[in-house]
Amino acid sequence: MGQKVLLSEKEINIILHRLACQLLESHLDFKDTALIGIQPRGIFVAQRLTKILKEEYGVKHIDLGFLDITFYRDDFRRGDKTLEATKTKIDFLVEDKKVVFVDDVLYTGRSIRAALTAIQSFGRPSEIELLTLIDRRFSRHLPIQPNYRGRQVDAINNEKVKVMWKENDGEDVIYLINT
Fold first, then answer.
1. Buried b vs exposed e over 45-54: b needs ≥16 C-beta within 10 Å?
2. Rounded to the nearest 5°, which phi and psi values hold at 127?
3. Within 13 Å and on the Cβ side, how many CA atoms surround 22?
């Protein structure tokens, strides 16, 4: 099993700033926009983007939520391992808002399909966009594409993308792992 660094801490930071600028261009003051991190790992991307937008670009208010999709997944109860739910935290209305789903890796598209179903429990957004830090474009099972992508990665065969965050793993780095 070998691994190589796809993105260093510095590169991740540059990409997050670029994504924040792209969001700013599309949503300006974020008055009618909500960022929703897909649990469990999309929340780190969403929190970082929110911090950048507020501290470095002066956005006064951003609705930030976290969405658990465990019970909406099509592979729920299919494996030997029991899936554990995380906590959904959406303390604002999504009705008629522009919602930006935020996730770390877009792989098959199944998590986003589950998020599209799950968000309906909170209202009907006027629009839904997808931001992903890593887009594994050759692995899609569903016709789902990101509106905003940090880096496109052509991981094939048994290669996996592993995203590490300081808040959870002690370092900011993204690896391509050959299993």
1. bbbbbbebbb
2. -160, 150
3. 18
pTM over 0.90? The answer is yes
* CA dist list (Å): 27 to 33, 35, 129, 137: 7, 11, 11, 26
Kindly state the average pLDDT of the residues 68-72. Answer: 87
Cα–Cα dist 128/125, whole Å: 7
- Does residue 42 contact residue 48 with C-beta atoms inside 8 Å? no
Q: What are phi and psi of 4, to 5 degrees?
A: -130, 150
Position 106: which residue type?
A: L
Backbone angles phi, psi at 14, to 5 degrees: -60, -45
Cα(75)–Cα(154) distance, rounded to whole angstroms? 24
